[in-house]
Amino acid sequence: MSDGNEYLTSDRTENMRIEYGLVCSYHATAISWRFSILGFYMAATGLILSADSIPHAGILLAVLSLAMFMVDVRNRIAFHELIRRAGEIADILGTNSEHSRSAIDAGFHNRSTRIRILFFNISVSPEGVIAKLASHSLAIDIMILCVFAYGIFVTVR
Q: φ, ψ for residue 118 (rounded to 5)?
């Protein structure tokens, strides 16, 4: 059975390369939006915590945290869809899929790296625990959970 690659004309190939470039560009832009939204969330949290006159500040913090979490989950879905589409395009073009996907995916694909944390030089492999824990999503989840828990604590106190 044919995989359809023999039907790729030079125009279609060029269009697929352009789409791949746009997918990579959109992925980078979406990451920027994600951290801009996170910055607004942290600023709003700081304003709520610094204002003594806001009634039911804990409830407001909890609701704001839930809303931020929902926005971030939606962003994660979009990221995975972009990565999936980039992989499809790489497969269609017949390029090395893992290498092409790593161009858009910020994960640790098939490479080991050394990072410095405080005074320690640590080697991080793609399968290692540190590689799995060192993610933006986990850091965002922890921040949101802490603010949410504090909001609930302030409310029931």
A: 55, -115
Per the confidence metrics, is the pTM higher than 0.70?
Answer: no
Contact 113, 124 (CB under 8 A): yes
Q: Are 62 and 70 in contact (CB under 8 A)?
A: no
The amino acid present at 150, given as its one-letter code, is Y
Domain boundaries, the chain: 5-156
Of the candidates 120, 142, 103, the one whose C-alpha atom is nearest the C-alpha of residue 25 is 103
- Residue 70: what pLDDT? 92
Give the 3-state DSSP-derived string for 74-119, with helices as H, strands as E and coil as C. HHHHHHHHHHHHHHHHHHHHCCCHHHHHHHHCCCCCCCCEEEEECC
Identity (one letter) of the amino acid at 38? L
